[in-house]
């Protein structure tokens, strides 16, 4: 069955430190990949997406993600975290010829001053 | 431009009642999606529309759930005989085209069934 796994439920990071959120997927073929962020009371905002090409993708708010086909992973990174990055982050995939997003369970990020 | 909007933002109802949740997609977007997000989980697909027709309703949990999009724009998710387990945030998204396009989400409707 198709699935998306985000192994870390919670991550606490100090402001200014680096952040990496893990995402692994299980699909028959390489899907299209997305990272969304959800702040309290807010809808899901797209951070970045990977369809094809360069496996290092730049997004908004200083985030980037790297697609690794051999590991079926699409990890999200940020070099220096700001307090405003405290939120829940969701990895999601959609088949290349499909439409339904399948989401991981999310990782909640807490930022310490 | 205006994003996806959803009304109401919060809905509290009693078990057994009927509710309607509304979604206004981004203008010009042909595809519209409904997802449900239970507490502490990622969103789960319910149904999507291409134009006026429901192209895939495989995620609807049972026949108490129904959605329409009569003019190919606004959509309404309808839940009959609500149960406590229906309590969740209902998210709507739209995209310009259907296949593997970026989906833009609304703020959601938080439904609480007492």
Q: What are the low-pLDDT stretches of chain B, counting only 5+ consecutive residues below 50?
A: none
The helix fraction of chain B, in percent, is: under 10%
CATH architecture of chain A: Sandwich
The topology string of helices and strands of chain B comes to EEEEEEEEEEE
CATH class of chain B: Mainly Beta
The number of domains of chain A is 1
Q: Total helix count of chain B? A: 0
- DSSP strand tally of chain B: 11
The largest β sheet of chain B comes out as:
7 strands, mixed
Total domain units of chain B? 1
Question: Biggest interface, and residues per chain?
Answer: A-B, 27 and 26 residues
Question: How many alpha or pi helices of chain A?
Answer: 0
Topology:
The complex is a heterodimer of chains A (about 110) and B (about 110).
Chain A: E1 3-5, E2 10-14, E3 19-21, E4 24-26, E5 32-38, E6 44-50, E7 56-58, E8 64-68, E9 73-78, E10 87-94, E11 102-103, E12 107-112
Parallel strand pairs in A: 2-12
Antiparallel strand pairs in A: 1-4, 3-9, 5-6, 5-10, 7-8, 8-9, 10-11, 10-12
Chain B: E1 5-7, E2 10-13, E3 19-24, E4 31-37, E5 44-50, E6 53-56, E7 65-68, E8 75-79, E9 88-95, E10 104-105, E11 109-113
Parallel strand pairs in B: 2-11
Antiparallel strand pairs in B: 1-3, 3-8, 4-5, 4-9, 5-6, 7-8, 9-10, 9-11
Task: Provide the descriptors you would attach to this structure in a database record.
A: 113 residues, mainly beta, six-stranded mixed β-sheet, four-stranded antiparallel β-sheet, 51% strand, globular, B: 114 residues, Immunoglobulin-like, 48% strand
What does this structure look like?
The complex is a heterodimer of chains A (113) and B (114). With 113 residues, chain A is mainly beta. Chain A has no helices and twelve strands. Chain A has one domain (3-112): Immunoglobulin-like. In chain A, 0% of the residues lie in helices and 51% in strands. In chain A, the strands form three sheets. In chain A, strands 2, 5, 6, 10, 11 and 12 form a six-stranded mixed β-sheet that branches. The radius of gyration of chain A is 13 Å and the shape is globular. With 114 residues, chain B is mainly β. Chain B has one domain (5-103): Immunoglobulin-like. In chain B, 0% of the residues lie in helices and 48% in strands. Chain B contains no helices and eleven strands. Chain B has strands at 5-7, 10-13, 19-24, 31-37, 44-50, 53-56, 65-68, 75-79, 88-95, 104-105, 109-113. In chain B, a hairpin with a 6-residue loop joins β4 and β5. The chains are: A mainly beta (113), B mainly beta (114). At the A-B interface, β5, β6, β10 and β11 of A face β4, β5 and β10 of B.
